[in-house]
Amino acid sequence: MKIIVLKFGGTSVGTIKRINNISKIIVSYLKKRFKVIVVTSAMSGATNKLIKKSKQISDKFNDSEYDVLVSSGEQISCSLIAAKLSHLGYKSKSYLGWQVPIITDNAHKSAKIISIGKKVLINYLRQDGVPIVAGFQGISLDGRITTLGRGASDYTAIMISKYFKAKKCIIYTDVEGVMTTDPRIYRKAKKIKEISYEEMLEMSSLGSKVMQSNSVQDARLSRVNIDVRSSLIKSKGTLIKKKKNVRQNNVIRGISSTTNDAKVTLVGVKDKPGVAASIFEPLSTNNINVDMVVQNISPNKVDTDVTFTVKKDDLNKTKKLTKNNKRIKFRKLLIDDKVSKVSIIGVGMITTPGVTYRMFKALSKKNINILVISTSEIKISVLVSRTKLRKAVSALHKEFKLD
Amino acid sequence: MKIIVLKFGGTSVGTIKRINNISKIIVSYLKKRFKVIVVTSAMSGATNKLIKKSKQISDKFNDSEYDVLVSSGEQISCSLIAAKLSHLGYKSKSYLGWQVPIITDNAHKSAKIISIGKKVLINYLRQDGVPIVAGFQGISLDGRITTLGRGASDYTAIMISKYFKAKKCIIYTDVEGVMTTDPRIYRKAKKIKEISYEEMLEMSSLGSKVMQSNSVQDARLSRVNIDVRSSLIKSKGTLIKKKKNVRQNNVIRGISSTTNDAKVTLVGVKDKPGVAASIFEPLSTNNINVDMVVQNISPNKVDTDVTFTVKKDDLNKTKKLTKNNKRIKFRKLLIDDKVSKVSIIGVGMITTPGVTYRMFKALSKKNINILVISTSEIKISVLVSRTKLRKAVSALHKEFKLD
Q: Are residues B264 and B170 in the same domain?
């Protein structure tokens, strides 16, 4: 069977008009003789309304009942789509999590899929039916409704694609695909045609509006090729697939940037073995994520400066914990929360030498000072002053021919 | 086990505040050591909103998907109640139709209950849990969600009461109980303390705001005693039970009246065997319900006058069908749509002679002309001019000491 999975997000099914519109998309694949499995989110706004109700009942709303409550959102959207297809003369039926069944653990509100029953849907596909599967929900082994965490309809679509060995998994959303950089920061940003899972994960700051990074990771682990595109505009989207299958035109795939980082510098730290661990231990136990770290070479071989970045939200907590840290001694604590992290991302840099040099040169040409550097196999990040953000992104976008 | 079934209608769970309020009612029964099974409707207005959506999708919305769509309403209300009870420290869980399970036939939109599984709920009651059962929904033998028809949460509550041999079934609604007559027509109407199923069925015109007549019939057949009361005001309601268990203070239990009847008279009908059948046959095949019928004695023994009533909505169709009826001959067709049917109802009239006489005398004293009469074992109905409606109800209410 030539199975294709079409997943529609909340905005794609947000109004009756849009449901009519996506029904046409579904029909276009049926006409191409695909066996179509549809996965749908709730109509946009529906889940938020239900969550609001839950908060009015209790600030500690029972997790299991929360799942019963919010899963009603997808129940509505999938019945509307199935009825629309029926109206158009196609055989279609809604399938809720328990009807497929999509078996999960019982970690309510963020359950993981254990297995998906294939018999019911395969049977229906054989009869030329179009199953409309409610995303985001499943059933636990003790027969209770579970949900997979917010935005997890993508997860449902990816797992359905995996279990049913779908030829394609198309994620329809309200954006056209993944962009080379945030168009609000650099207006010449372009849509990326193909990207590897790994690059997509590194671009999470860009990609978050497209797909949540845990869904990308699910796709990577399940080896499901994703096609992200808009349900509102007819145009090719972005293909997310295995590294070796991605066509490589440019060394760099995209540029991501942040505006919610803060830089912390401890000046004159006594340099002795284990001092870094002593600095970061209290932050780690308090769930503060330390991102970039650099330790300067101390001129006198006794003192050293340690610089790191944390999210701005964690800044006050970080200051307090560091000042109260009895295991370290330092002269001064410097804070800079007017910084941005700019990253270039691309699997091409593994095999192409000189990328770091080109990056630094492009920035220095524009008189942009690099405050901290960190690198991974497919990413180079630099911390720059917030005021230089647009200039830095624009310079790098041009340097790596993304325009 | 001392099981009690508490059913809450749409207005009783219409807002978060009201859900908080009914949670207190539930707790009051738990404190009296009852094992409580709650049955709930959707929050008032919720079902109508969903139906509106279905109509926007298609004027022939698929019946099976309609059931998936509208059953989401009870899913929301029962999860909110269960979570509220959890918040208050009680063990509570929502149970949807398929989870109980409530097995139905597959007549979507108006399914009938075939059986109710007892194991799951009994088990939960034994653990001191409070199951909150979604009313109005079930699951068909082929695993699809079904609904039991509008207002059928009462039906769910009655069948649950029957299967679990509940000591009591209390239907909480937004009225205080069943009244002796419509308070808008006669403001001295009183609440009825006890009423038999049969009387309640005859009072359907009064009772419709309280319980639908098919639910009363379900209760009668299942021998479930019903207690109808308000969830908004603390006061005793009306008990609906077996004829022989109803206390009999008055001969007459209540007075019902209609304003949507019309009287049709065929003047000068050729009187021959089978003429009545010829008159009513086309009406019956066109689903027109003929209510009261009277055939006057013809003075010349050749012609006769036939009078009957139909619902005003059916009047035009009735006129057309009768005029086109080739099997009968008549001189004139008279129409009067300014009529009301006033009925006195009470099981007491079976054993008390002279009720008819008292009724007619009370009306004649007030110069109210009786147009048509019809009687059943526990009901006497008269057709009067619409302008005399209030006067007739008031006279009868006094005559039979219902004030």
A: no
pLDDT tens digits, one per residue of A42-78: 999 999 999 999 999 999 999 999 999 999 999 999 9
pLDDT, tens only, A297-341? 666 667 888 999 999 999 999 999 999 999 999 999 999 999 999
B96 close to A (CB below 8 A): yes
Residue B107 belongs to a domain: yes
List CB contacts (< 8 A) between A65 and chain B.
Answer: 79-80, 82-83, 86, 93-94
> Could you tell me the pLDDT band of residue B73, with boundaries at 50, 70 and 90?
very high
Scanning every residue of chain A, which has its alpha carbon at the shortest distance from the alpha carbon of B47?
A: A76
SS3 assignment, position B219: helix
pLDDT at A31 over 80: yes
Q: What is the CATH number of the domain that holds B370?
A: 3.30.2130.10
Angle at B261 between CA B257 and CA B266, to 5 degrees: 135
* Average pLDDT of the segment spanning B13-23: 97
Structure tokens at B320: 């057309």
Instruction: Give me the pLDDT at residue A65, please.
Output: 98
**Structural domain count, chain B:** 2
Classify residue A186: in a domain, yes or no: no
Residue B345 in tokens = 């109802």
Count of Cβ atoms closer than 10 Å to residue B298 Cβ: 14
How is residue B325 written in tokens?
Answer: 């009826």
Is A184 part of a structural domain of the chain?
A: no
- Classified as helix, coil or strand, A187 is coil
| CATH code at position A170 | 3.40.1160.10
Q: What angle do CA B100, B105, B106 make, to 5 degrees?
A: 105
Query: Contact B62/A143, CB-based, under 8 Å?
Result: no
Mean pLDDT of chain A: 93
Structure confidence at residue A229 (pLDDT): 94
Interface test with B, best of A21, A54, A62 (most B CBs within 10 A): A62
Closest chain B CA to residue A81:
B57
The answer to whether residues A190 and A401 touch, using CB atoms and an 8 Å cutoff, is no
Domain boundary among A174, A189, A222: A174
Collapsing DSSP to helix, strand or coil, B4 comes out as: strand
pTM over 0.90: no
- CA atoms of B95 and B105, how far apart (whole Å): 19
Q: Tell me phi and psi for residue A125, to 5 degrees.
A: -65, -40
- Map residue B10 onto helix, strand or coil: coil
Q: Same structural domain for residues B267 and B382?
A: yes
| Enclosing domain of residue A80 | 3-174
3-state secondary structure (DSSP) of residue B85 = helix
Domain boundary among A158, A174, A190: A174
Please compute the mean of the pLDDT values over residues A83-105 and round it to a whole number: 98
Q: Strands B102-104 and B137-140, how do they pair? A: parallel
Residue B298 confidence (pLDDT): 64
Residues A170, A279, single domain; the answer is: no
Quick one: A279 and A155 in the same domain?
Answer: no
ipTM of model: 0.84
- pLDDT, residue A336, reads 96
Residue B319: other Cβ atoms inside 10 A = 15
* Percentage of the residues of chain B whose pLDDT score is greater than 70: 98
Q: What gap in Å lies between CA B76 and CA B94, rounded to an integer?
A: 10
Question: Could you write out the DSSP letters of every residue in B249-261?
Answer: SSS--EEEE-SSE
Clarify whether residues B376 and B264 are in a common domain: yes
Q: Which residue of A has its CA nearest to B76?
A: A69
Residue A20: list chain B partners with CB under 8 A: 57
Helices of type H across B267-388: 275-285, 315-323, 355-365
Let me know if residue B221 belongs to a domain.
no
Say if CB A154 and CB A215 are below 8 A apart: yes
